[in-house]
Amino acid sequence: MISANEYFDGNVKSLGYESATGKSTLGVMEAGTYEFATSLHETMNVVEGEMTVLLPGSSDWVTYKAGEAYEIEANQKFQVKVSGQTSYLCQYK
């Protein structure tokens, strides 16, 4: 089954699904700054565009471009800035 999710007044939208490798969401973010919270370990893969991210425990913002990924442990908060539409694949463990 595919689930549709919408956050931040429709500025972040994703489709959730489960495959043989586990749960994932495929989504798009509009330009903006967002704070997310995790309940599971996440691997965020940037598909198109770029994300500038402030990971938990870090004071440095790091930019991830298409083809790059970063990981966040469960039960953490992190911040993301995008300057234009950016697509992602988020995989959960």
Radius of gyration: 12 Å
Largest sheet: 6 strands, antiparallel
Oligomer: single chain
User: How many β-strand runs?
Assistant: 10
Anisotropy-based shape? globular
| Major sheet: arrangement of strands | 1-2-3-10-5-8
- Our estimate of the beta-strand percent is over 45%
Helix content: under 10%
Low-confidence residue ranges: none
Distance between the termini: 18 Å
Count the helices. How many? 0
The chain-level structural class is mainly beta
Topology as a string of helices (H) and strands (E) = EEEEEEEEEE
Which whole number gives the mean pLDDT?
97
Protein name: Pyrimidine/purine nucleoside phosphorylase
Pfam families: Ppnp
Keywords: Glycosyltransferase, Transferase
Family: Belongs to the nucleoside phosphorylase PpnP family.
Features:
single chain; 93 residues; mainly beta; 6-stranded antiparallel sheet; 4-stranded antiparallel sheet; 10 strands; 0% helix; globular
Please, could you describe this protein's structure?
The chain is built from no helices and 10 strands. The protein has strands at 3-7, 12-19, 22-29, 32-37, 42-48, 50-54, 62-65, 69-72, 77-82, 86-92. The protein has a 6-stranded antiparallel beta sheet, with no helix packed on it. With 93 residues, the protein is mainly β. 0% of the residues lie in helices and 65% in strands. It is globular, with a radius of gyration of 12 Å. InterPro entries: Ppnp, RmlC-like_jellyroll, RmlC_Cupin_sf. Its EC number is 2.4.2.1, 2.4.2.2. It comes from Wenyingzhuangia gilva. This is Pyrimidine/purine nucleoside phosphorylase. Catalyzes the phosphorolysis of diverse nucleosides, yielding D-ribose 1-phosphate and the respective free bases. Can use uridine, adenosine, guanosine, cytidine, thymidine, inosine and xanthosine as substrates. Also catalyzes the reverse reactions.
